[in-house]
Design brief:
Mean pLDDT: 80
CATH architecture: Single Sheet
Order of helices and strands: HEEEEEEEEE
Number of helices: 1
Distance between the termini: 50 Å
CATH topology: Histone H3 K4-specific methyltransferase SET7/9 N-terminal domain
Strand order of the largest sheet: 1-2-3-4-5-6-7-8-9
Helix content: 10-25%
Oligomer: single chain
Structural class: alpha+beta
Length: about 130
């Protein structure tokens, strides 16, 4: 019985080690196209992206920070906010939830700086709350 647990732990550990190496992208190089790498893109406007790049687009995990301090941290697809993420507004309000094509879309939690929050979902740009939390 003890051998079986040890064998499972060793195999699980090796798989975990192997998977963490598989998902680590190399740093982007200025001499090569930004493809399948991790990099930083700074814009003249003062906005900045730090994260995974694939085929010249933001794809995978990343952070996009606007010049005014607003920021999105989460998953990108083809340069757009996609799936799970957190959007923090310059006011300090925060939305944690689902996105599709850069827009809030799906379930999420909108938290206000005064401590109030609303749990619900976005559909077609409109927020429908399920519960208000204070």
């Amino acid at each position: 019985m003890m051998h079986r647990c040890l064998r499972f732990s060793l195999v699980g550990g090796l798989l975990l080690l192997q998977s963490s190496q598989t998902f680590a992208l190399p740093d982007c190089s200025e001499s090569e196209p930004m493809d399948n790498c991790f990099g930083t893109v700074t814009f003249a406007s003062g906005s900045k992206y730090v994260g995974e790049l694939r085929d010249g687009n933001y794809s995978g995990q990343g952070t996009y920070t606007y010049a005014d301090g607003e920021a999105y941290v989460g998953t990108f697809k083809d340069g757009l906010f996609h799936k799970q993420g957190t959007y923090t507004y310059s006011s300090g309000d925060k939305y944690v939830g689902e996105f599709k094509n850069r827009e809030k879309n799906g379930r999420g939690l909108y938290s206000h700086t005064d401590g109030a929050s609303e749990k619900g979902f976005f559909k077609d740009g409109e927020f429908f709350y399920e519960t208000k939390v204070k």
